[in-house]
Specification:
By secondary structure, the protein is mainly alpha-helical. The chain is built from four helices and two strands. Helix 3 crosses helix 4.
Length: 136
């Protein structure tokens, strides 16, 4: 297979591959999906050819994203995504809880309105106003 990219496109592809592999493997521990690690290594191994050596380190013969790459802002993008997903899921779960408790489960408009209200609260205040009743 032949793929032609500009340097900027190649750099963006590195970001996409890193983020994708992070999402797929970061929480798997020793049960990593190695096929994705291999693709990541293959692409980061091309960094030297593109005069982007700073983005790649090696562990033995295996090319890996460098510390400079990993600390260059990519994790902020991942954290933004994780925050958005967290608040979206939390809003939906709380709206479904409210629907079950208050009896509007069959009203999709009310459910959607409740989800949006929670999302707005989280957008404005994060988890500052969240409380949990638990015996801790």
């Amino acid at each position: 297979m032949q793929l032609t990219l500009t340097k900027k496109q190649f750099r963006r592809l590195l970001d996409l591959v890193y983020i994708g592999n992070w999402v797929l493997n970061s929480a798997r521990g020793p049960d990593r999906l190695e096929d994705y690690d291999e693709v990541e290594s293959l692409l980061f191994g091309k960094c030297a050819e593109e005069k982007m050596e700073v983005l790649c380190d090696t562990r033995g013969p295996v090319p890996l994203p460098s510390k400079a790459f990993a600390e260059g802002g990519i994790h902020e993008a991942i954290m933004d995504y994780e925050d958005a997903v967290f608040f979206s899921i939390l809003s939906e779960e709380l709206a479904h809880r409210d629907a079950a408790e208050e009896g509007f489960a069959s009203d999709p408009k009310e459910l959607y309105a409740r989800m949006n209200a929670y999302m707005e609260e989280f957008f404005q205040n994060g988890i500052l106003n969240v409380t949990v009743d638990a015996d801790l």
